[in-house]
């Protein structure tokens, strides 16, 4: 979790396995595109920084975060991936919709991880406002996309 003490983009580069032989799927939500575009940018750049070749990074978009579960599930069925990353941004509104979407995605991704052979990495920002999301997608608290890329490489090696 990003806190004032933890920058999402900080890690020990030397401890990350080489990703040059790995294949990654990324499912990204179109909702709050300013945020999810920055998450995607961070994830792709970090995967490539650790050796992943662009042809082995497959990106698919879905309309909103709730659809991330379906997208990730389809990618696990297609096979061929060493790890899958989901990227989304849910921002709290005036109704409980926020809670339902967050719970649905969290439960859905957890379920895929418990039943599929391919690890799915959870890159869902759940914030009270847009500024908090910007802070965590390339702003003052780093980029959750970078963090997800590192986790994906580690889990692919697991
Ligand atoms: C409907 C909705 C709302 C209110 N807010 C968000 C949000 O902040 N972030 C997001 O990714 N998606 C949101 N959505 C869309 C839902 O995720 C979903 O796409 C629709 O409910 C259709 O299934």
TrEMBL record:
Where (2S)-2-hydroxy-3-oxobutyl phosphate is bound, by residue?
94-95, 136
Keywords tagged on the record: Riboflavin biosynthesis, Transferase
The record's section on InterPro entries has:
LS, LS/RS, LS/RS_sf
Annotated GO biological processes are: riboflavin biosynthetic process
The organism encoding this protein is: Prevotella corporis
Q: Which residues bind 5-amino-6-(D-ribitylamino)uracil?
A: 31, 65-67, 89-91, 122
Classification via Gene3D superfamilies: Lumazine/riboflavin synthase
Gene name as annotated = ribH
Protein name, as recorded: 6,7-dimethyl-8-ribityllumazine synthase
Q: What functional role does this protein have?
A: Catalyzes the formation of 6,7-dimethyl-8-ribityllumazine by condensation of 5-amino-6-(D-ribitylamino)uracil with 3,4-dihydroxy-2-butanone 4-phosphate. This is the penultimate step in the biosynthesis of riboflavin.
């Amino acid at each position: 979790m990003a806190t004032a003490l933890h920058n999402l983009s900080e890690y020990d580069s030397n401890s990350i396995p080489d990703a040059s032989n790995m294949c990654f799927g990324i499912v990204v939500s179109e909702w709050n595109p300013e945020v999810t575009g920055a998450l995607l940018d961070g994830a792709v750049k970090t995967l490539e920084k650790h050796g992943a070749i662009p042809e082995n990074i497959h990106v698919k978009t879905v309309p909103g975060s709730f659809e991330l579960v379906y997208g990730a599930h389809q990618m696990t069925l297609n096979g061929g991936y060493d790890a899958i990353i989901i990227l989304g941004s849910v921002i709290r509104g005036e109704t409980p919709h926020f809670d339902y979407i967050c719970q649905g995605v969290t439960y859905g991704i957890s379920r895929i991880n418990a039943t599929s052979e391919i690890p799915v990495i959870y890159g869902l920002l759940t914030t009270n406002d847009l500024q908090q999301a910007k802070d965590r997608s390339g702003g003052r608290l780093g980029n959750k996309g970078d963090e997800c890329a590192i986790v994906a490489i580690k889990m692919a090696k697991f």
